[in-house]
Design a protein that fits this description.
The complex is a heterodimer of chains A (206) and B (257). Chain A is built from 6 helices and 14 strands. Chain A is an alpha/beta fold. Chain A has a single domain, classed as Rossmann fold. In chain A, strands 2-1-3-4-14-13-12-9 form an 8-stranded mixed beta sheet. In chain A, strands 6-5-7-11 form a 4-stranded mixed beta sheet, covered by helices on one side. Chain B has one domain: Alpha-Beta Barrel (TIM Barrel), CATH 3.20.20. In chain B, strand 4, helix 2 and strand 5 form a beta-alpha-beta unit.
Chain lengths: 206, 257
C-alpha cells in the first residue's frame, strides 16, 4: 500500500507536491490508476489551471466517481480544493460536490487613498486565521503566512478551518470528515506548508 | 493582508549561478541549489532564475537544474530566459517551477502569452518588460537586452504594452527599469507609479535597488506587489533579514521568516 497517492490528472505542479512529500519521508506515488488511488492510505488532488480544464481531465481519466467514492483522507490543493465543491463560477462548471457551495471569482478592487488596491490573481504570502479546530493545523500559529496563487475562492462556511482575506474573506483551509482542502500551496509555503502536509499524513487525521 | 514580496534574482549559466559585470566577464557565484537554499533560509519570498545562456544560444532552459531546485526549495520560484513555446514552458513547469517569465519572445510573438495562459493558467505566466525613457520623455520597450550588442529599441510604449499583455493573459508583470538598473540609486518610482496605474495584475519592480530604504520607498510610493534585485543581495549590501526588519518598522507588511 502506498502511503500517499497524488492523483495525476495532468496538472503542472505534480512534481513540486511530490518533492514536498518526499522531503517529509513519505512513500509517494503519482497515479491515474483507480485501483492504486483507492488503495492509498492518503490521497492528494493537486491542480493548477482552470476548473473546467481540471474537471475535464478528471473525467477523461475516468476518475470523477473514483474521487467521489474515496473513504480515506483526501486533500485538495489549490484548484484541487476548488474541485471538491459543487460548482465553480470559473467556466460555470459542475465540480465533484464533496463539499457544499460554489467557488466564485475574487474581485479586483481599487484602493482608496492610502490603502492598497486588491489585485487578481491573489499572488503571494498571506495570513491564515483559524476559525475552527482541526488536527490539520496542529503546530501552525494563528496568523501564519502561506503562499497563495489563485483568482477564484470558496465561501466561508461551516466547513472552513482557516480564512484568509484578499478583498473579501475566503476559505483558505477547509475540512469535513476526512475531506480537506488548502487554497494555498503547502508545497511552496515553507515550514507552514510542510507542517500542514505532515499533519495530513499523521495518524491524527483519520 | 497580502505581504509585499522580496525576490532575489539569480543568473544561471550551465547550472551554476554567475554574476556578470556588464553582461560579460561572468564570475562564478556558486552552486544553484546551495544559493537557492541560502536565500530561502534568509527569508526570500520567491526566487527568479534567469538562464542567461538559453536565449542567446537559442535553446530552452535545461530541465535538470530546475528539477534539482524544485526538489529542495519550499518557496515559489520562477524561471526566465529561453522560453519560446508552450512546450518549453511545459518542460520547465513539469520540472517543478511555479511560473515562467517571458520577455523578448512575447514581443516577437504576443500570441505566446495567450497560449501559455490557456495551457497553464494566468497564474503561471509572467511577462518581463525592459523599459527605458526616450529623449521625447516616453518610456518604450527594449528587446534582446540579454546581449548589449543586440539590444533593440522598439516603438512600442511601455504603458501600452503593459495593458496589452494583461489582455493577452499575463498573470504578473515584472518591469525592469533599465535607466536605474545597476546604478543602485533607487527604483524608478515615477515609471513604476505610471505602470501601477496601468496594471491590475501583480506588478514587480526591478532595477535600481541599493539600500533598504529604496525597497520601502517603492512599496510606499509605487504600490508594487514585489521588488526584485540581484547584485545588492549577492554582494551582501542588503541582507534580507535586516531588510524585512526595516520594512516592518516602516509599516510595510512582509512575511516573517
Amino acid at each position: 500500500m502506498n502511503d500517499v497517492v497524488l492523483i495525476d490528472a495532468g496538472g503542472a505542479n505534480l512534481g513540486s507536491v511530490r518533492y514536498a512529500l518526499e522531503r517529509l519521508g513519505a512513500d509517494v506515488r503519482v497515479s491515474a490508476d483507480a485501483s492504486v488511488i483507492r488503495a492509498a492510505r492518503r490521497v492528494i488532488l493537486p491542480g493548477v489551471g482552470t476548473a473546467a480544464a481540471g474537471m475535464a481531465r478528471l473525467r477523461q481519466a475516468g476518475l470523477v466517481d473514483v474521487v467521489r467514492g474515496l473513504r480515506q483522507p483526501l486533500l485538495g490543493i489549490c484548484l484541487g480544493m476548488q474541485l471538491l465543491y459543487e460548482s465553480s463560477e470559473e467556466g460555470e462548471v459542475e465540480c465533484l460536490g464533496l463539499l457544499p457551495g460554489r467557488v466564485a471569482r475574487l474581485l479586483p478592487a481599487v484602493g482608496d487613498a492610502g490603502t492598497p488596491a486588491v489585485r487578481v490573481p491573489h499572488m503571494g504570502w498571506n495570513r491564515l486565521h483559524r476559525v475552527a479546530g482541526s488536527p490539520l493545523l496542529d503546530g501552525i500559529d494563528d496568523g501564519a503566512q502561506a503562499y497563495f496563487v489563485h483568482s477564484y475562492a470558496a465561501p466561508v462556511d461551516g466547513t472552513t478551518i482557516a480564512v484568509a482575506t484578499h478583498g473579501r474573506e475566503f476559505a483558505a483551509v477547509v475540512g469535513e470528515g476526512v475531506r480537506f482542502g488548502a487554497q494555498f500551496h503547502p508545497e511552496r509555503s515553507a515550514s507552514v506548508g510542510s507542517r500542514l502536509l505532515r499533519n495530513f499524513l499523521s495518524e491524527a487525521i483519520a | 493582508m497580502l505581504s509585499r514580496r522580496i525576490i532575489p534574482c539569480l543568473d544561471v549559466r550551465d547550472g551554476r549561478v554567475v554574476k556578470g559585470v556588464r553582461f560579460r566577464d561572468h564570475v562564478d557565484m556558486g552552486d544553484i541549489v546551495e544559493l537557492a537554499l541560502r536565500y530561502r533560509d534568509e527569508g526570500a519570498d520567491e526566487l527568479v532564475f534567469y538562464d542567461i545562456t538559453a536565449s542567446p544560444q537559442a535553446r530552452c532552459v535545461d530541465r535538470d537544474w530546475v528539477e534539482r531546485v524544485a526538489r529542495v526549495i519550499d518557496i515559489p520560484f520562477c524561471v526566465a530566459g529561453g522560453i519560446r513555446s508552450v512546450d518549453d514552458a511545459r518542460t520547465v513547469l513539469h520540472a517543478g517551477a511555479d511560473k515562467v517569465s517571458i520577455n523578448t519572445p512575447a514581443l516577437q510573438r504576443p500570441a505566446l502569452v495567450t497560449e501559455l495562459a490557456d495551457a497553464f493558467g494566468v497564474q503561471c505566466v509572467v511577462v518581463g518588460i525592459d523599459s527605458l525613457r526616450d529623449a521625447d520623455g516616453e518610456w518604450r520597450v527594449r528587446r534582446f537586452t540579454g546581449d548589449p550588442s543586440r539590444t533593440e529599441a522598439l516603438s512600442r510604449r511601455t504603458l501600452d504594452w503593459i495593458g496589452e499583455v494583461q489582455r493577452l493573459g499575463a498573470g504578473e508583470v515584472v518591469l525592469n527599469c533599465m535607466g536605474s538598473d545597476g546604478v543602485r540609486e533607487g527604483f524608478d518610482i515615477g515609471q513604476l507609479r505610471a505602470a501601477r496605474r496601468a496594471c491590475d495584475v501583480p506588478l514587480v519592480a526591478s532595477g535600481g535597488a541599493g539600500t533598504a530604504s529604496h525597497f520601502s520607498d517603492v512599496f510606499d510610493q509605487a504600490d508594487v506587489d514585489g521588488a526584485l534585485a540581484a547584485s545588492v543581495f549577492h554582494s551582501g549590501a542588503v541582507g534580507i533579514p535586516a531588510l524585512k526588519r526595516e520594512l516592518r518598522r516602516r509599516g510595510v507588511e512582509v512575511r516573517d521568516a
